[in-house]
Amino acid sequence: MVGRRKDKKKKMDTSKLDGIVKKAQSNSQERELGYREQSLKLHPWVCGRCGKTFTRDNLQLLTVHHIDSDHNNNPPDGSNWENLCIYCHDNEHQKMNEFQAYGDVNSGQSNTIATHNPFAKLKAKMEKND
């Protein structure tokens, strides 16, 4: 019988990593609450994109968007914040993700006006067939 070697899986101690993740999440939540509350005091409760107005009843659907995408850039005058509804906020981030993945989709397009008219001779052909 051939001797079998049993591989013992070492159990990793993840407590240090778990602590780092927990602290990062806590810091993120504190930072978000801080700038969100400030933005709600400074700016009207209106989505900056679609114009939907919010009240205390639905205020949880109004988010704060960082214009320069830097969540650490929180000037007290609110100049880097824009209140957006959750739908417009998701759309704004989706546009940024697409730009990062594909670049500027409009950069390769020409600004020249199309001159081809596919129906230019249609009237003459119809009169010829009558």
Q: Give helix and strand order, one letter per element, not per position.
A: HEEHH
**In which range does the helix fraction lie?**
40-55%
Mean pLDDT: 83
Name of the CATH architecture of the domain at 28-104 = 3-Layer(aba) Sandwich
Q: What's the overall geometry?
A: elongated
* End-to-end CA span: 97 Å
Total helical elements: 3
CATH class of the domain at 28-104: Alpha Beta
Strand residue content: 5-15%
Low confidence ranges? none
Characterize the biggest β-sheet.
Answer: 2 strands, antiparallel
In CATH, the topology of the domain at 28-104 is named His-Me finger endonuclease fold
* Strand order, sheet with most strands: 1-2
Structural class: mainly alpha
Give Rg in angstroms.
28 Å
Give the total of beta strands.
Answer: 2
What is the topology?
Blueprint: H1 15-42, E1 62-66, E2 81-85, H2 86-102, H3 122-129
Antiparallel strand pairs: 1-2
